[in-house]
């Protein structure tokens, strides 16, 4: 596969075209942001850790018959992926009440949610990713009711698969964010990444933070990168670590 031109640049990843219109290359950068892009930094190694962690988790999902964008890890930081038309939704799934949920609603801190909560935010920088409901998403032509239902069903399935896999690795899946897109046949496909940037992972024994909350809370580069490295060694097979 030949890498083509950059077709999209996000806060931490770039998307490149390839010589095949069905495929793109996703490149993970070392950039890290927090607070709606207010804080920015560059931590060497982050792109590598996130690409390895995300590849592993997408492989686990593919093995469980979830349709994902992932094709293969080409090299550290670069993933060959299916070309999707992305749906501008941040689909958040929560097993434990923390983060922005506590700021908006009277949940108890770190309360275990009996039934996972799915929340959808409109991915739009200008409007600062507001929470929306089905009616708003449909009126904005972001997705149809059927697609929203599909997204919810797939997200709950992903929550089960990943919670179980991570538990075996000593990690509690507290919450996470997914993004979906449509392939050329209009199928709903999981896209983007699943990494410590987009999930809350807690050590199952100590409940210590193993994700980007370390950066949000002001830990330094060494501390944050040693956490990402730790997650990588906890979930990625040693043979895959180059
Ligand atoms: O901040 P909040 O509690 O709403 O985040 C819920 C989950 O979604 C967290 O795992 C967070 O990392 C993820 N998230 C994300 N990108 C955003 C907002 C939240 O990956 N723009």
TrEMBL record:
Reactions catalysed, as given in the entry:
5-amino-1-(5-phospho-D-ribosyl)imidazole-4-carboxylate + L-aspartate + ATP = (2S)-2-[5-amino-1-(5-phospho-beta-D-ribosyl)imidazole-4-carboxamido]succinate + ADP + phosphate + 2 H(+)
Q: Which CDD domains match?
A: SAICAR_synt_PurC (cd01415)
Question: Which UniProt keywords are given for this protein, alphabetically ordered?
Answer: ATP-binding, Ligase, Nucleotide-binding, Purine biosynthesis
Give the matching InterPro entries: SAICAR_synt/ADE2_N (IPR028923), SAICAR_synt_PurC (IPR033934), SAICAR_synth (IPR001636), SAICAR_synthetase (IPR050089), SAICAR_synthetase_CS (IPR018236)
| Listed transmembrane segments | none
Sequence ranges assigned to domain SAICAR synthetase/ADE2 N-terminal in this UniProt record: 6-222
Coiled-coil residues: none
What is this protein identified as?
A: Phosphoribosylaminoimidazole-succinocarboxamide synthase
Q: Which organism is it from?
A: Methanobrevibacter filiformis
Organism lineage reads as: Archaea, Methanobacteriati, Methanobacteriota, Methanomada group, Methanobacteria
């Amino acid at each position: 596969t030949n890498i083509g031109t950059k077709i999209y640049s996000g806060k931490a990843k770039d998307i490149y075209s390839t010589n095949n219109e069905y495929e793109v290359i996703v490149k993970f950068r070392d950039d890290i942001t927090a607070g709606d892009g207010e804080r920015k930094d560059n931590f060497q190694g982050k792109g590598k850790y996130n690409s390895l962690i995300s590849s592993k988790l997408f492989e686990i999902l593919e093995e469980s018959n979830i349709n994902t964008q992932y094709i293969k890890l080409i090299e550290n930081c670069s993933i060959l992926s299916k070309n999707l038309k992305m749906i501008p939704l941040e689909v958040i799934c929560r097993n434990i009440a923390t983060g922005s949920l506590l700021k908006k609603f009277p949940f108890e801190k770190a309360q275990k949610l009996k039934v996972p909560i799915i929340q959808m935010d409109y991915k739009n920088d200008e409007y600062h990713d507001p929470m929306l409901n089905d009616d708003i998403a449909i009126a904005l032509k972001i997705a149809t009711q059927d697609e929203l239902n599909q997204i919810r069903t797939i997200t709950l399935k992903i929550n089960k698969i990943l919670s179980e896999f991570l538990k075996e690795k000593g990690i509690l899946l507290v919450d996470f964010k997914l993004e979906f897109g449509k392939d050329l046949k209009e199928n709903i496909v999981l896209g983007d990444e699943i990494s410590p940037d987009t999930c809350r992972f807690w050590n199952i024994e100590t409940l210590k933070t193993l994700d980007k909350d370390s950066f949000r809370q002001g830990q330094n580069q060494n501390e944050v990168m040693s956490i990402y490295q730790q997650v990588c060694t906890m979930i990625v097979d040693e043979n895959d670590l180059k």
